[in-house]
Specification:
Chain B: InterPro entries: FldB/FldC_alpha/beta, YjiM-like. Chain B: Its EC number is 4.-.-.-. Chain B: This is Putative enzyme. The complex is a heterodimer of chains A (about 260) and B (about 425). Chain A has about 260 residues and is α/β, with parallel strands linked by helices. Helix content of chain A is about 40%, strand content about 20%. Chain A has 2 domains: about 1-90 and about 235-260, Nucleotidyltransferase, domain 5, CATH 3.30.420; about 95-235, 2-Layer Sandwich (Nucleotidyltransferase, domain 5). Chain B has about 425 residues and is of the alpha/beta class. Chain B has helices at about 5-10, 15-35, 45-50, 55-65, 80-85, 100-110, 115-125, 130-135, 145-155, 170-190, 200-220, 230-240, 245-265, 290-295, 310-315, 325-340, 350-360, 375-390, 410-425, and strands spanning about 70-75, 90-95, 135-140, 160-165, 275-280, 300-305, 365-370, 395-400. The mean pLDDT of chain B is about 95. A 4-stranded parallel beta sheet of chain B has the order 2-1-3-4, with helices on both faces. In chain B, strands 6-5-7-8 form a 4-stranded parallel beta sheet, sandwiched between helices. Classes of the chains: A alpha/beta (about 260), B alpha/beta (about 425). The interface of A and B includes residues 64, 67, 76, 103 and 123 of A.
Chain lengths: ~260, ~425
């Protein structure tokens, strides 16, 4: 049985095609049209596998763009999908820390992929992927270079959580001649502190999976482990947790067709 | 809508800003309310009241004033409306549920303050609320620091009588509150020029209790599954209860309840049987703030109670009707109002107990505790609510929001995730 999970995030769209234990994926930028990004990712995935839409039993959409996908069988929130995906990526994981492009969340699960409780950041972009992008731009770096640039550096104190204020704080630190590496380390720690505080309110997990695009940043992961007082695990597929979870839920839940869309 | 421009002009409204408000309201109402399926027919009256929110009711207030009557505005369910009624006045709840006049409000208020406070200041300074402009006196209270201090500023623009609401419920607090209620009676008598008698007070208590009984009856009917009426419609009725004509409103709510009783017998409802049932708790949702209930009820759940000031806190307790003398009746009123479980009290265990018992009575699957940004009493109390609900294994979702619409999608994600979590339990 073929199922598909499509996670349309604010920056990146991830699509996973699943058949038994085999799966393949497509990752592409969301750009300005979540609907188009979702459709194109789906088409590309089908094209790669040589499948037609009708060969796919169920398509689940997730992520902030889930509501704009006309071709899905069911929309499920990224919270439920990440919990399910995390269980697949890391057996027994009971907490998921997901930092995506425009929000960050902590999900407490029952260790079997079901949500027990969750917390999300407020409506601003503080401590998210977008936050890191803005800061990287202010430092003349690419977001993918941040971890390397900060390696081994002593973090400076970053007091502003707001993306706009933190950017001006970074600029004034640069003007004071503070090393880039120290500033970036400070930014990584501030992101970790914010999410750790959210996790503390839910209760600590025993086995924590770090997902979302920001999980690719080793610097944030390190500080997160330190702040949470336990290892946070990142797998090579961490960014795909939402899409994987969606594809798995598409297989496990009876949402097959009938009401295509929502 | 009939042409009320002349009346608005004579009230001194800023017609341009008011036009903008009136342009936004009907389409919002259409998409939030008129799009609902299986609505009870009895909602027609309340739809009409909303369509004439700045029209017919304002005209009635002008007629009342032309006949020598007084209109008194209030912001809080602590202001004893029986007293205003007994003195022949009309009490109206004032507008504060929408982002308006922000630039003007920020001239006198800090930027980061509760949206309700910013809204009422914006309404007054922007001259966009005909209710506000119809009031010659406003009653404030000391239920939070923000309001307490804002009333000093508001007093520059309209006379404000502030009642000191205590923060604890000990005997000495009860004595203070009773004296505040007595002072309020004297102030209202002076302001209206009418002496309150035992007879007029008895009637006012009866009328107001009848309104509360009708609202209680409505809320009892929501115990049924499928729910015979949506939470959005009930919230609307609760919002209207604060400014509509009392006997007319009471009769209309009772007529609606008659219809709902038939629905319940026939097993008809607004949501499918077994739809997730939620209790909405937290800060008041003043008209026209329907954002969160709309998100909840368009996500497949039904709201079965509002543990809010625009909800149960407004009508749960009745004033005992046995009082013989005016003095006894005033004491009964003071006692009734001090029983309200506002987060301004410490401790406020009554609220926690009520949410827990309500969840049982209404067979609720979970609670959504929704707080306005910068509302310290309720935001801090969210911790106590969480603790009490956890003890009773009742799922809880905390939301913090304001009157802006830009976080609707994020709220929807949280609400949907909460419902997905409930579904899986």
């Amino acid at each position: 049985m073929f199922t598909v999970g499509i996670d349309v995030g604010s920056i990146t769209t991830k699509a996973v095609l699943m058949n038994g234990s085999d799966w393949r994926c497509v990752i592409r930028p969301t750009g300005c049209s979540p609907r188009q990004a979702g459709s194109e990712a789906f088409e590309e995935l089908l094209g790669q596998a040589g499948l037609k839409r009708d060969d796919v039993t169920c398509v689940v959409g997730t992520g902030y763009g889930r509501i704009s996908l006309p071709f899905i069988d069911k929309a499920v929130t990224e919270i439920t999908c990440h919990a399910r995906g995390a269980h697949h990526l890391l057996q027994g994981a009971d907490m998921v820390v997901d930092i995506g492009g425009q929000d960050s969340k902590v999900i407490l699960t029952d260790g079997r992929g079901n949500v027990v409780n969750f917390a999300m950041n407020d409506k601003c972009a503080a401590g998210t992927g977008r936050f890191l992008e803005v800061i990287a731009a202010a430092l003349g770096a690419d977001v993918s270079e941040l971890a390397d640039l900060a390696r081994g550096a002593e973090p400076v104190q970053i007091s502003s959580m707001c993306t706009v204020f933190a950017e001006s704080e970074v600029i004034s630190l640069l003007a004071q001649g503070v090393e880039k590496g120290k500033i970036i380390a400070g930014i990584h720690r501030s992101v970790a502190l914010r999410v750790a505080a959210m996790a503390e309110r839910l209760g600590k997990g025993e086995l924590i999976l770090f997902t979302g695009g920001v999980a690719k940043n080793e610097g944030v992961r390190e500080y997160l482990s330190r702040e949470l007082g336990r290892e946070t695990v990142v797998t090579p597929e961490s960014q795909l947790a939402g899409a994987l979870g969606a594809a798995l839920l598409a297989r496990e839940r009876p949402w097959v067709s009938g009401g295509r869309g929502r | 809508m009939a042409d009320h421009r002349k009346m608005w002009e004579s009230l001194g409204l800023d017609l341009e800003s008011h036009d903008q408000l009136m342009k936004v309201l009907p389409p919002t109402y259409g998409s939030v309310y008129m799009s609902q399926e299986n609505r009870p027919e009895g909602m027609e009256y309340f739809d009409f009241v909303v369509s004439e929110v700045h029209g017919q009711r304002i005209q009635e207030l002008q007629d009342h004033k032309a006949a020598g009557g007084k209109v008194i505005g209030a912001f809080c369910v602590y202001v004893p409306e029986e007293i205003v009624r007994a003195a022949g006045g009309i009490q109206v709840g004032l507008c504060s549920g929408v982002e308006i006049g922000t630039a003007q409000a920020e001239k006198v208020l800090p930027r980061n303050i509760c949206p309700l406070i910013k809204s009422f200041m914006g309404f007054k300074l922007g001259k966009v609320c005909p209710y506000f402009e119809s009031c010659d006196m406003v009653v404030g209270e000391t239920t939070c620091d923000g309001k307490k201090k804002a009333f000093e500023i508001l007093n520059d623009f309209v006379p404000v009588h502030v009642m000191e609401t205590p923060q604890m419920k000990r005997e000495k607090d009860k004595a203070l509150w009773l004296s505040e209620v007595q002072d309020f009676l004297a102030a209202v008598e002076e302001y209206t020029g009418n002496k309150v008698t035992a007879e007029s007070m008895r009637q006012a208590i009866k009328d107001t209790n009848a309104k509360r009984r009708a609202l209680l009856r409505l809320n009892e009917l929501r115990r049924h599954d499928p729910a015979p009426i949506s939470g959005k419609d009930c919230l609307l009725i609760e919002q209207i209860s604060m400014y509509d004509d009392v006997p007319r409103f009471t009769a209309q709510v009772n007529a609606l309840c008659d219809e709902l009783e038939v629905r319940v017998k026939e097993g008809k409802g607004v949501a499918v049987t077994g739809a997730p049932r939620l209790i909405l708790s937290g800060t008041p949702m003043a008209l026209p703030n329907w954002k969160v209930p709309h998100v909840i009820e368009t996500s497949g759940a039904v709201i079965v109670a509002e543990e809010m000031c625009t909800g149960l806190r407004y009508f749960e307790n009745l004033v005992p009707e046995e009082g013989e003398t005016l003095e006894q009746m005033v004491e009964a009123i003071a006692g009734r109002y001090l029983d309200i479980n506002c987060a301004c009290f410490t401790p406020n265990d009554g609220r926690m107990e009520r949410i827990v018992s309500l969840a049982g009575e209404m067979k609720a699957d979970g609670v959504i505790n929704c707080t306005l940004a910068f509302c310290d009493p309720y935001l801090v109390e969210a911790n106590r609510v969480g603790k009490a609900l956890k003890e009773h294994k009742i799922p809880l979702l905390n939301l913090e929001t304001d009157y802006g619409q830009e976080d609707s999608a994020q709220i929807k994600t949280r609400v949907e995730a909460f419902l997905e979590m409930l579904e899986n339990r």
